[in-house]
Amino acid sequence: MRTHAITIAGACVLAAAPARAEPTAAELQAQGERLAKAGRYSEAIDAFKAADRREVRASHACLIALAYTRRELWPQAEIFMQACHERARPSDPEPEWVPQAEALIEERLRSANAALVELSTDPALPDVELSVSSFAPDETFGPRAIHLPLGRHAVLARAPGFEDERTEIQVADRSARRVVIKMWRVGKRPRPPSPPSHLDRYLMYGGLGASVAGAAVHLLWYRDNRAELDGARRDKNLVAYRDAEPAYDASRWLTLGLYAAGGAAVIAGGYLHHRRRERRAEAAVTVLPLPEGGGVVSVGWAR
Known about the structure:
Elements: H1 2-16, H2 25-37, H3 41-54, H4 58-70, H5 74-87, H6 98-111, E1 114-122, E2 129-132, E3 145-149, E4 151-158, E5 165-171, E6 177-182, H7 199-234, H8 238-277, E7 282-289, E8 295-302
Parallel strand pairs: 1-6
Antiparallel strand pairs: 1-3, 2-4, 4-5, 7-8
């Protein structure tokens, strides 16, 4: 009985204890201001962003812009200063120090090694979000002109119903430029053209090479073996005939094989060439036998 009473009393104490509430936007903003005064600007920016996720306010964007000026990251300061202006309302006015901070940002951007890049999409989408690789991942914005430092940047564009598009930008000097990102609806992106195949050329060149090799074997090896075999037959020298026969057979089959392979390759290459070029061409391959054996491959096209 006593144990049950202790358990019930403990449960009542736990139920009565208030749950720890999440910090409010005002508390997170105050935390960010304390961090900024301590010179911990990166942490201050995170606190201001957390406050902005609780409640979107112009003051949060203004404070983020100010923290970025302290870090001398002028392109990011420029983006959030623009958001500061866009959000300002009579109920949420800009802080008094905004004109001075904005003048500093503009001055430093004029002398910084950065180029003005106008980012837009095709088609123009009202709800597209852009992000730049040199910015924090959670810093997105709509199509606009921004300053980017010299170097290579990747711009990612996202919009509902469209595929994500990634574009590489190389900023080599301070000249202004315009970048239009082509957007495709999901499943509507055209397939990239397949690279041209040169198999037809390889087959024809290889076939001609095999035919030339066959002609060389024919003239330099087969013909001599054939002459030696015929001489042994005329002399009725059976021993010499049997000695010459293996070399003759090998040279004969090699010659015929090279001619046949060359002719087949030329035919296949010509057919592929015809299909690729969509030309009505007829390939003609003729093998002309020679009196001493073997043959010569003749290739021609008639349109």
